[in-house]
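step 4 of 6: structure.
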Amino acid sequence: MSITIENLNKQFGTYKALDDINLEVNSGELLALLGPSGCGKTSLLRIIGGLDVADSGRLLFHGEDALQRNARERNVGFVFQHYALFRHMTVFENVAFGLRVKPKKQRHNEAEIKRRVHELLNLVQLDWLADRYPAQLSGGQRQRIALARALAVEPKILLLDEPFGALDAQVRKELRRWLRRLHDDLHITSIFVTHDQEEALEVADRVVVMNKGRIEQIGTPDEVYAKPATPFVYQFIGNVNLFHSRDHAPWTQQHGDAVAYVRPHDIDISHTPQDDTALPVEVKLVRAIGSIVRVEVAADESCELVEIELSRERFDATPLAIGDKVFIRPRQFRVFQAGEKNEFSAA
Amino acid sequence: MSAQATQRKISTRESPGVTLVLVTVALIYLVLFLGLPLFAVFYEALSKGWTLYWKALQEPDAWSAIKLTFIAAGIAVPANLVFGVAAAWAIAKFEFKGRSLLITLIDLPFAVSPVVSGLVYVLLFGAQGWFGPWLQAHDIKLIFAVPGIVLATVFVTFPFIARELIPLMQSQGKEEEEAAVSLGASGWQTFWRVTLPNIKWGLLYGVILCNARAMGEFGAVSVVSGHVRGMTNTLPLHVEILYNEYNFVAAFAVASLLALLALVTLLVKALVEWQAKSSGDPLH
């Protein structure tokens, strides 16, 4: 089921949580809402799920107005960051809840409920935990049960609020791959909220980057990483070095206040100047981290550090040591005018 | 983990002398101020033998006091149960204007002396009170009658259940309710299937405390009762009357009932706490 959001606004006191949001979610798509905490992504998710009310704007499910319907009528599955499993019910009863509270006429008989619950528990590979209580499960198991519970009512839309936020790194990685596979099997229109860019880029079909209640960019993971639309996206997704036109006029290629944004892996290092725009710097730090080598350099005249990432091969081709005088040059960069939505302009 | 616990024990352990002094002080205090009076009540009540004790309890006036006490508690506890759950639900799960005012108001009966709250009812509903003439004209008697006693009891005991539930429900948050609603549950279904089971032990605990206070309340009830023997006397008031008449055996016999009630309350309270702990949702 497709979701259309038009001119949605939400204000908490004087704080604008959502500022004129427009968004189209395609049917069967897995969409990530990505942004720092307080950017409004959770508010947006809760409004779609009917757990919060928008101040103004429109929300359509498959072209039909959804704001008129309350949460129980929206047929939306919601998965919470802290699982929100019913603590006094067994895993089985948790998953069965949505089936048991249906109006009498639509309610299945006990045998059918049992069959469906076990089917769902098998889907999340936890059938053997049916008689346990939530407190007896690990975080990863709880979140999978929460997902099974949400799927029990056969929702047309699945909303996940930081679903892996409370889990440790290893489990988180495992679960997000599992979620991706599950989505490929079920094809339910899904939106998940995260502040973890790696998670968004790895799992989602499309990523919506949000900041301060506004949408900064909508695009595929590749687009938002390779072609960030705004300085904020540049900074939020991946690392970036800023070169101000005051200090590095040849790179920004223009006069006036502008800033060049360069990814750490888009910088060349050489012992001899590449051309007349190359910047002479001194190596301050060399650190090998797994498959890459991180080098920090500083221009002679300033103490501002520039971060560079080299592959092992490239590092081995031009070995560096602390104190080396070298030259750097960006292979690829993007220039933003200062003041052009530029909240992080170089100091 | 256990090594850590041992470590902590050692680092906070006092010398045997200090431990002994502290324990002795606590025990002497308990015996003097709790044990001795309790013993005295039963000792005095039975000082003239079991026959007189039973006789004192079978007096019609004593019986009517027992009945009235049960009526007052029987109305006050369910009324405050409904109010307490509703108020705690509203305060813990919703944001609304006047929320903190409501919390303050719930604490009012704790802050005001019971005698004063009794007097307020007399001022409002007594013969000379604001609504007195209107009540008289319609032949309704609140003060110096059973309804007044019930009203005073409800007022004095209404914080108990709400106060017990508010922190509990606040700490549980509202995510489980939100999950229930998003799964298609109605408000009632959410309450009966999710909220109530989560607060059942806290609720029971509040009911026990509320009941103990409702049966034992003296000050507020004393002001509105008028002390009509066999009519508007509750157990605590009846004890006072008997005592003032130098009828010590009867006074202590009735008082022993209240003491017994207190002991039963303590026992049930301990049981509830133990049950709550072993079922994995601690009360506090």
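step 5 of 6: annotate
 - The CA atoms of residues 195 and 242 of chain B lie 47 Å apart.
 - Chain B has a mean pLDDT of 86.
step 6 of 6: archive
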